[in-house]
């Protein structure tokens, strides 16, 4: 009997030890799975290595960087190599006064590009009014939107310390208002200005400054992305350079965003291949504002029309509700679809294994609209395919769980009341009582189910408001990647209010930071015409059409800058911060001035860069461009096969293996013509 008891006791202990070991093993496996995913080694990339959810596919293991083909596709724009950034003050520029006229507190509404434009403007306004700037409040990132409490509003997106230190010679910046003014603001005792979009400097000098001196504090509410006109009078030129110092030096993203952006860039560049950044610009608001509903089908068209109706009721859109989207597209008023961008890039010569990074916090229509682009290019990626979910979640900080509790039945007391009323009501027979009301839950694709049942869009939930704050961080990552990309091409440059969008900021930053970087600015009207010409016989494209596409895209590298100076700069200074924030190198300035190339002289005249760079920038010589940049022939196939030169019955594995004499002759001729631009 005792032996049986001891045996049972031993078995219990063995079972207990087994359970403990099993639990420990599961815990260890969980840690290994999590931290192995977080710390994937990315030092040695090969084309067969899986990087997160992206598996790179390359047809040619070696990518020659010294070939004429590489220089044409990925190389810098030589005629702009002498353009350098220079936003330092020129001439006398005083430090901010220790005694200011008062404090300016700013509330900024809008998306990523509107916030960035507005911050630059309010810094200039603070300098103009000799005011102390309190750290701006970004409405999208306040604690009421469900974000982590460890971040204050401005610090959710940008580095506060860098902002204050960088502007110490320009504007006095404090992290918060003094206690007495903070209390007065809570009681709504300080004057508030809802400033108009693109207001004149004299609006602030004549209307805001007297109130600021009288009350020692004013609050500005900026809602349309930019509260100061883009082009200022000539004697305000130093304020334009201040805008550049704010946008390109003071506004640095917070450390976590910078680190993840650097990791994604490293993962793209560690492959040893250049990449293209593409910003679709296809948001629901932009499509609604410009009347592009019929570019989509089914519920997406209805969603766009609903948003346009909402805009018309609020005076944002002045036109009719129903717009001929086909006509708007032909006029260049609608975004270029990802399919159309893919056709242009393939026609220009980019191979199917080129890496394309798709940016943007939202692509209206979802992944379905990107399917044609994926079909043309095998390495289409975005931030989610180059990072782990854990890395993205780490940006948000400690957030409260906002998962809504499932809706239960109505309260018991109401049930008792209804049943009692039914029993006491009139003689039988009586109709059955109605079922208890249930809260509507739109479960058709989640976010657009309300369209089928209601004319009014439901209010945003706290979860949706939180997601909007997250989108700012996503766009910050995309912004860094797009600025550093080897090639950038936008699908659209307008937002849902007719103003310039994210892509315009990127193009302006690239022009400031590295003017020679390859940035295509396609003319949408011309691009649509070219695509429609070949749409019905895309696989039998003739070489005349290919030359037209290449000539157009090559032309936009320079002529697009001239167009931006005329059309984009009056809307947003940061879309074209030249010539105020640029200088020209000594050794190439005279070359460009006396160049016999018509396009070169036109570009430099339109840029208006007369300021020569300081001597300390002359660390090396700038290559002397010629009227014909590439004098050597292109000896190899330039990836025009595949989509446009498909050989029937041929047995080839990639674009690089198709090399016909006819194609090479076309490439040689096209390459020589390219030097004349």
UniProtKB/TrEMBL annotation:
GO biological process: fucose metabolic process
Subcellular location: Membrane
GO cellular component, one term: trans-Golgi network
Parts of the chain that traverse the membrane: 12-32
Stretch list, region Disordered: 622-677
Main location: membrane
Pathway noted in the entry: Glycan metabolism
Keywords from the UniProt entry: Carbohydrate metabolism, Fucose metabolism, Glycoprotein, Glycosyltransferase, Membrane, Signal-anchor, Transferase, Transmembrane, Transmembrane helix
GO molecular function terms attached to this record: glycosyltransferase activity
Membrane topology: Single-pass type II membrane protein
Comp. bias regions, Acidic residues: 630-639, 665-677
Composition bias, Basic and acidic residues: 652-664
Sequence similarity: Belongs to the glycosyltransferase GT106 family.
PANTHER family to which the protein is assigned, alphabetical: O-FUCOSYLTRANSFERASE 27 (PTHR31741:SF46), OS02G0726500 PROTEIN-RELATED (PTHR31741)
Protein name from the UniProt record: O-fucosyltransferase family protein
Organism for this UniProt entry: Crotalaria pallida
């Amino acid at each position: 009997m005792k032996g049986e008891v001891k045996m049972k006791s031993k078995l219990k202990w063995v079972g207990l030890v087994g359970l403990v070991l099993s639990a420990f093993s599961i815990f260890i496996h969980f840690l290994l799975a999590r931290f192995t995913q977080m710390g994937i080694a990315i030092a040695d990339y090969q084309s067969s290595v899986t990087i997160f959810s992206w598996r790179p596919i390359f047809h040619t293991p070696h990518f020659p960087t010294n070939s004429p083909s590489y220089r044409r596709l990925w190389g810098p724009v030589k005629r702009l190599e002498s353009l350098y950034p220079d936003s330092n003050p020129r001439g006398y520029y005083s430090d901010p006064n220790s005694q200011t006229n008062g404090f300016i507190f700013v509330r900024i509404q809008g998306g990523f590009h509107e916030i960035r434009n507005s911050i630059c403007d309010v810094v200039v306004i603070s300098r103009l009014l000799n005011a102390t700037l309190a750290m701006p409040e970004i409405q999208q990132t306040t604690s009421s939107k469900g974000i982590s409490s460890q971040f204050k509003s401005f610090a959710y997106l940008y580095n506060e310390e860098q902002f204050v230190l960088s502007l110490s010679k320009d504007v006095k910046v404090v992290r918060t208002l003094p206690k007495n003014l903070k209390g007065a603001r809570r009681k709504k005792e300080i004057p508030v200005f809802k400033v108009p979009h693109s207001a004149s400097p004299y609006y602030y000098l004549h209307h805001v400054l007297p109130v600021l001196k009288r009350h020692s504090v004013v609050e500005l509410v900026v809602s349309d992305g930019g509260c100061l006109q883009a082009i200022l009078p000539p004697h305000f030129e130093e304020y334009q350079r201040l805008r550049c110092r704010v946008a390109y030096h003071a506004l640095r993203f917070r450390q976590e965003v910078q680190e993840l952006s650097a990791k994604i860039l490293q993962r793209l560049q560690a492959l040893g291949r250049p990449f293209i950044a593409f910003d679709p610009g296809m948001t629901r608001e932009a499509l609604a504002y410009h009347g592009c509903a019929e570019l989509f089908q089914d519920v997406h068209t209805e969603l766009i029309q609903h948003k346009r109706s909402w805009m018309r009721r609020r005076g944002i859109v002045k036109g009719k509700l129903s717009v001929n989207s086909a006509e708007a597209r032909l006029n260049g008023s609608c975004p270029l679809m990802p399919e159309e961008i893919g056709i242009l890039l393939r026609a220009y010569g980019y191979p199917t294994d080129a890496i394309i990074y798709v940016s943007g916090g939202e692509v209206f229509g979802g992944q379905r609209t990107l399917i044609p682009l994926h079909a043309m290019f095998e390495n289409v990626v975005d931030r989610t395919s180059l990072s782990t979910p854990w890395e993205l979640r780490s940006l948000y900080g400690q957030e409260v769980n906002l998962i809504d509790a499932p809706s239960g039945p109505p309260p018991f007391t109401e049930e008792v009341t209804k049943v009692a009323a039914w029993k006491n009501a009139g003689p039988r027979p009586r109709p059955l009582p109605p079922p208890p009301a249930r809260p509507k839950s739109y479960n058709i694709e989640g976010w657009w189910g309300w369209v089928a049942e209601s004319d009014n869009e439901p209010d945003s939930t706290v979860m949706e408001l939180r997601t909007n704050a997250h989108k700012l961080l996503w766009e910050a990552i995309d912004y860094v990647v797009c600025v550093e990309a080897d090639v950038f091409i936008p699908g659209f440059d307008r937002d849902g209010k007719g103003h310039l969008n994210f892509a315009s900021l990127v193009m302006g930053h690239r022009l400031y930071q590295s003017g020679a970087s390859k940035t295509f600015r396609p003319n949408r009207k011309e691009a649509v015409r070219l695509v429609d010409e070949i749409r019905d016989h895309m696989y039998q494209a003739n070489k005349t059409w290919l030359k037209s596409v290449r000539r157009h895209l090559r032309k936009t590298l320079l002529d697009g800058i001239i167009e931006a100076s005329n059309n984009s700069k009056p809307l947003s200074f940061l879309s074209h911060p030249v010539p105020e924030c640029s200088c020209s190198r000594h050794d190439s300035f005279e070359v460009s001035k006396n160049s016999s190339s018509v396009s070169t002289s036109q570009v430099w005249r339109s840029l208006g860069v007369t300021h020569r760079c300081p001597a300390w920038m002359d660390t090396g010589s700038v290559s002397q461009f010629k009227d014909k940049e590439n004098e050597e022939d292109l000896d190899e196939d330039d990836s025009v096969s595949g989509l446009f030169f498909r050989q029937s019955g041929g047995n080839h594995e990639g674009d690089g293996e198709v090399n016909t004499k006819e194609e090479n002759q076309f490439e040689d001729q096209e390459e020589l013509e390219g030097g004349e631009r």
